[in-house]
Design goal:
alpha/beta; Transcription Regulator spoIIAA; 7-stranded mixed beta sheet; 5 helices; globular
């Protein structure tokens, strides 16, 4: 299982993702997202993936959300540091060069990194995070849209079912003057 380390160096926040970064870290990432823009000293965010061995699509979607929030609150493109060719290839294939500056090294030194406090979520909250993360990925590229549309559709259906709705509740009513089967 992976961990997320955190440090603030002057006006830069550094998040270091270590190990196998999976959906289980989603609540912790989401909690961090809430803090972006609250510290007036914060000028940029660096995401260090140099010790990331694997990262799943939900975590990638949440990283993209960090970028979007950073761009909105700080008016700056965050940086991803990746030295693992496999991880860098995944980032590029997902279209991350559109929302991050991707570099192979950095001169920011973080000796005093602490672990971000772990957050938890209910099953419904986790499902919502997974769904939102994949919707964000879909917006990054046409390939992502094709890659994740079936998953997003299945998660949306599951979300409806969990809320006690069924798919027919979301369908429009037939036009006036028409029977349900479409004839007059």
């Amino acid at each position: 299982m992976g961990t997320i380390l955190f440090a603030q160096v002057d006006s830069v926040q550094v998040l270091k993702f270590v190990g196998d970064v999976r959906v289980t870290l989603g609540p912790t990432i989401s909690k961090y997202l809430e803090s972006i823009g609250q510290d007036s000293r914060l000028k940029s965010i660096v995401i260090d993936l140099t010790e990331t061995t694997c990262i799943d699509s939900t975590s990638l979607g949440l990283l993209a959300k960090i970028s979007l929030r950073s761009q909105d609150a700080l008016k700056v493109l965050p940086t991803i540091v990746s030295t693992n060719d496999d991880v860098t290839r995944i980032l590029t294939s997902m279209g991350f060069e559109r929302v991050f500056l991707i570099v192979g090294d950095t001169d920011i030194c973080c000796e005093q990194m602490g672990e971000l406090p772990e957050s938890s979520a209910t099953e419904a909250e986790l499902r919502d995070q997974v769904l939102e993360a994949h919707r964000i990925l879909m917006k990054l590229s046409k390939d992502n849209e094709l890659k994740f549309r079936d998953l997003v559709a299945a998660l949306e259906l599951e979300q409806l079912e969990a809320r006690g709705e069924d798919e027919s509740d979301c369908l429009p009513e037939p036009a006036p003057g028409r029977y349900a089967h479409g004839r007059r």
